[in-house]
Amino acid sequence: SFKDCIPRSFQLQIRRHNALTRLRLRNIFRRFVRAFQPGHVSQQVVMVKYLATLEQLAPRFGTERLPVCHLELLAQAVGQPYYLRDAGQSPPEPGPELATGPPTHEVLVTGTGGIQWRPGGEE
After folding, report:
1. What is the pLDDT of residues 13-58, one digit of tens each?
2. What is the pairing mode between strands 105-110 and 114-119?
3. Where do runs of H (alpha helix) occur along 16-116?
């Protein structure tokens, strides 16, 4: 069954759909497997296609949302991409005052969208 090839949490999500939706998913997976007969493509290509298909079926799969108590934005990050580079220094230890209090921002980390944040705590 195609359900043996997907994460268990996604299997549970599929079980909640009606029978017609489950039949459609089964047919999509069957066509996907037929398109990649042995010898035509590498295993890496099949995995990329699988992940792309999974992303279309479950757009929020693999995202992580974190409430944070303190978010400090660098001036360079406004309006243009900025990447922190390791200068061989370890980051400063956070003080206890930074770890307390209600969340002030929410950070969303995704594989395709990168890191995003917004004001506000948990909803």
Report:
1. 888 888 998 888 888 777 777 776 666 666 677 677 777 777 676 6
2. antiparallel
3. 19-35, 43-57
Are 115 and 107 within 8 A, CB to CB?
A: yes
* SS3 state of residue 107: strand
Q: Which residues pair with 105 in a beta bridge?
A: 68, 119
Lowest mean pLDDT among 40-54, 56-70, 80-94: 80-94
Tokens of 7: 């994460």
**CA 59 – CA 54 distance, rounded (Å):** 8
Hey, what are 78's tokens?
């406004």
- Tokens, residue 32: 């996907």
In single-letter form, the type of residue at position 78 comes to V
pTM score > 0.70 for this model?
no
Please count the residues of the chain: 123
The residue written with tokens 């980390």 in the block is 109
Secondary structure class of 71 (helix, strand, coil): coil
Residues contacting 34, CB < 8 A, separation 6+: none
How far apart CA 122 and CA 61 sit, in angstroms, is 19
